[in-house]
Amino acid sequence: MNVEQLVREALQEEAAAGGTPRGDLADRVLTARRRRNRRGVAGAAAVTAALVAAILTVPGTGDGQETASPASESITGDVVGHPDQSPPRDLIAAGNTAVSGYFTSRAVKQSNGQELFTRYYTVLDQKTGRYKALDTKWAWAAVAPGMRTAAVLEGELPAWRIGLLDLVTGKVERWIPTNRPVAGVEWSPDGKRLVATAYSKNPDRIDRPRGNRTGFYLVDAGSGEVGPFRTLRQPKPDKWGNYDGNSREDVGWSHDGTRLYVERPKSSGGKSDNRAWYTTSGARTAPPAGERFAGWSQAGLSPDGKHVAVDGDSEGSWIINATTGQKVGLVPGMQPLAWADSKRLITIGCDPKRCSGKNEYRSQLLLVTVGSKKAVPLSGFRKASADYLGRWMPLTAAR
Q: Distance between CA 50 and CA 5 in Å, rounded?
């Protein structure tokens, strides 16, 4: 199958879904190309060139105008860092991963005296290639691979509908209602589906009894179709009213998007896998090969499936053999966020050459390499405090 036909088929899929091309379109076309035994760099270049030309000429929906090309497509450097910016103002990226945005948070007192853990989101504006604050009405936001769309929920949580926010136009292009309220959403690795975690009460109410998760939905992002509700409750408090867990325990995706998981409480230590695994139908299952040792790390399994990055401390983070669980190396940084490729990681930490590493709160985004102690700063330092509105938490997504 030639390049033009691959692109044509991908665009036809988008048209059938009733939307403009998603940000992961290039990845899907390239993946299809690889499945047909693509050989050589020239093939990839041809696919990319044809794809970009096709996207730029696809008509927008409804207004008869051409769809704008995302700003992130013009920022093509392998490593794009801004070590003088904290929080970042311009796109940060490395390899196949970008910082899609960040959030700040604070405990906000309510009229009844309770406190609500509140997030304030800033995401990449695809018109400018810079980060832009979202409207504060969005209590939850998750950016899709490709960074063209964000799934958003209105506060106060839980919400009865999911919005798909176009990061080029800044408008909600689709509302997806749910029969039960949800308080968290996460994109599948291929950007085609969402898992929406349902709660009976707001899990971010600090003084509210814990354990209000009721289950989850799988949502097709292209069609807006919501799958059947799957019951998945949190354990009940013990007879003294104590709950061994967190009030928010959202459902997440496996590395390949075939299974789901929820985090086990950290107090259940001693387990090589700190996640409880489920099928997409909600049945308990074994962990996927390679993810038994994922722990609580956001980065998890490397793209080639060989290594797992686990959370560390001021001394660094261990890289684990995904098959044996053996430690294979220590990299700078205490909180691995995402793999840039199979050898490099975006992490939160402190460059050993610039600070003592003893203050975990004086940290920045770093690019680190397996087998090396070198750390490349990607952002400026975050203030050395655990709780203040300007302390930002990065979000990542595939470029």
A: 10
